[in-house]
Amino acid sequence: MATFTRSNAWNNGGTFTNTDLLWYAKGVGVMQGRKLDDLSSWWFFAAMHGEYIKESGFPGWGALPSPPSTPTTPHPSTSVWNKYWDQCQHQSWYFVPWHRGYLLALEAQVRAAVVSLGGPSTWALPYWDYFGPGTESQIPPAFTQTKLPDGSPNPLFVKARYGPKGDGHISVPMPPVNQKCMSNDLYTGTDHNTPPPGFGGPKTGFSHSGRQSGNLENNPHNLVHSFVGGNAPDGETYGLMSDPGLAALDPIFYLHHCNIDRMWAVWNSNGKSNPTDSAWLKGPAAHGQREFVMPLPTNKSWVYTPDQVDSLSKLDYTYDSLPKLAPAVNLLSQRLTHLGATAAAARVAGGAAVSQGENSELVGANEGALPIKGKGASTTVKLAPDVRRKVSASLTAASESAPPDRVFLHLENVRGTHDAAALSVYVNLPPGANPADHPELLAGTVGLFGLRRASRKEGEHAGDGLDFSLEVTPIIDALHMKHALDTDSLQVSVVPYQPIPDKAEVTVGRVSVYRLGR
Amino acid sequence: MVSDARELARVRNPVLLLSALAWILLLVEPGGMGVHAHFHAAGAGAMPLGASFRMLLAMNPPASLAAGWFVMLVAMMSPVLIPPIRHVRQRSFARRRARSVLLFVSAYGAVWMLAGCVVLAIELAVKRFAPQSYWPAAAVLLFVLLWQFSPVKQHCLNRCHAHTELAAFGAAADLEALRFGVTHGLWCAASCWALMLFPMLLPRGHFVAMVAAAFLIFAERLERPMSPAWRWRGLGSVKRILTARLIPADL
């Protein structure tokens, strides 16, 4: 039996009658009373995830609305700064293990504060399961109160939390947020149930700001960040949760990540495996890069590797809910049926061995960068006839030994400064049509969490921006079955969830289509 | 494009083989490949300036200088081209990959060959006025140390990590592969020119110095981009490679 159990924040209606939330608020209050350079302060922990302490103007910490009243001094020594701060792992296969260690360290600090106030020594972080029933897609009410039950200010209340519509109503819209990643088979890689780069993310080194998110990171993680933060009423800035350099200032951050951590645990508890590659197990420090390191309440630091945090049983905590997932649907069998290869579909459903092509090849691309402003933009993706014919031929001849090509739409080098944006991408949306009326043409929705940092020329990713890969295989299959794939181009429309301010300068460097097959 | 590991091997293995062959050539043909003749001090002083340069050029014909510089480039710089070559291949149609890579590498090489004119001119001038002297190399070494610390060096390194979008079709694809090669070459030359110059000014020990410089150039590229600031860079990666901690998973 684990010592610590993390429970649903919506217990007792998500109010302060849920003592997990009440003690969390009190513990956060203690940490917020400490100085920026104190290794156990709220601000120090937020800066470990990411910071804009030296920047002037938004998103500089000195320009943020209050509460919380965010300090920008005193700075720790350069060595402490470089050792601990700006450490979060994104667009990487280290995304979940780094954040698990981060949660454990924050939880230990809050627990120490809770105990110092006379609270339970077994206190554990609650999680916000926005996929829960009823109103649980909304933020637990304890985070929206300005006062604690005793009348003192509520440390969980944050002014710069605007929500998906920018009106201060915080909820997670479903769709586009979903749990499809839970049906993935592979942590890193791709198969018929796992779009690239896999459930946990692409193989990288230390990646404070990377390029392509893993499937769990992309949806729900990034989208929840973008939606909870949301657009500010000024039409230019956004909420804390939308940007990795601000997000951990908002106490809801840790409950969101607790849920992401729980989803990883659920994925594992349903027989899905983590990487066995030593590069993952031993972390980036084994290859000479930065180590994962957290300060503990004992004034010691904890250096950890993914293999030390890859199961709950190693860490003496658990969740109150680790449900069994629905049996995986055989997507290839379904697809073969749809393509008319019914005999092959039956053999695949019966367990026939399936080969998978590994060749990724460019099929087409648009010309020039695509600016995304206001209500969106569209572009023409020209297809190379010879490669497009290759895709058609593979669909026509599909079988278990010659699986049909899978097709992906890429948004390459997405740059800008508006991390709160969420973009839905449609293929061949009729002119003037309401996108909501055409879910069958939706390639996917992406959140631009991390956009500003990925776009900085002197940042860790040299300003190359973010990349997104959306599987459009069902759309291509439908075109093929309607004999409409013999085309020179596809029309791609990018529709923001909320209008994007002009000053945000969001651009997609290139829109391209790739095939994955033999 | 095949899986990441296989695609990496497809680029990395031939590039490293090419680099190794160039190193072997530099080792077995030092006179003709990157190690150029010096005057003896006494002879240089006694001869008029024009005559002495003519003799220096006779001893080091331009074609031979260019060939030596080219081999040196292949040996020292080709390993750092693995990431941009992978980027060009990934963003190009399969039938255009070889062509786009060739355009990228040609443009990159052309920038470095032009940079070589300046570096070789400095080398010849030094050999004319201070033959067999270690002082010019020592002065450049001091500059290298300062350069390695500088924020400008970090800015150049950051730009070397930039892999931007490329057009897919027609002349635009060719032009953008060339453009990428030129910009990558310019930032690479700006970042590395002093490290390339130093070994060339040494009267002795140039091969060992070239190996050390190439190692440092490779190691500093393994470090991720960061904010420009005064700091030492590259040595940490050198140490880690030497202690067999290998290279990051995503090179």
Provide a brief overview of the structure:
The complex is a heterodimer of chains A (518) and B (251). Helix content of chain A is 25%, strand content 15%.
Compute the separation of the termini of chain B in Å: 17 Å
Strand content of chain A: 15-25%
- Written as H for each helix and E for each strand, in order along the chain, the element string of chain A is EHHHHHHHEEEHHEEEHEEEHEHEE
Principal-axes shape call of chain A = globular
- Summed over residues and divided by their number, the pLDDT of chain B gives a mean of 85
> Strand tally of chain B, please?
0
User: What does the radius of gyration of chain B come to?
Assistant: 19 Å
Q: What general form of chain B does the structure show?
A: globular
Largest sheet of chain A: 9 strands, antiparallel
Q: Total number of helical segments of chain B? A: 11
Which class do the helix and strand fractions of chain A yield? Answer: alpha+beta
Would you write up a description of this structure?
The complex is a heterodimer of chains A (518) and B (251). Chain A has 518 residues and is of the alpha+beta class. In chain A, 25% of the residues lie in helices and 15% in strands. Chain A has 12 helices and 13 strands. In chain A, strands 5, 6, 7, 8, 9, 10, 11, 12 and 13 form a 9-stranded antiparallel sheet that branches. In chain A, strands 1-4 form a two-stranded parallel ribbon. In chain A, a hairpin with a 5-residue loop joins strand 2 (292-295) and strand 3. The model of chain A has no long low-confidence stretch (mean pLDDT 94). Chain B has 251 residues and is mostly helical. Chain B has one domain (2-246). Helices cover 72% and strands 0% of the residues of chain B. Chain B has helices at residues 4-28, 41-46, 49-59, 62-77, 82-90, 97-129, 135-149, 151-160, 170-200, 206-222, 235-242. Chain B is globular and about 60 Å long. The model of chain B has no long low-confidence stretch (mean pLDDT 85). Chain A binds chain B through residues 189, 202-208, 277, 279, 284, 286-289, 358-362, 364-365, 367, 369, 382, 384, 386-387, 412-413, 457-464, 509-510, 512, and chain B through 1-4, 6, 90-95, 155, 158-159, 161-169, 172, 222, 224-228, 236-237, 240-241, 245-250.
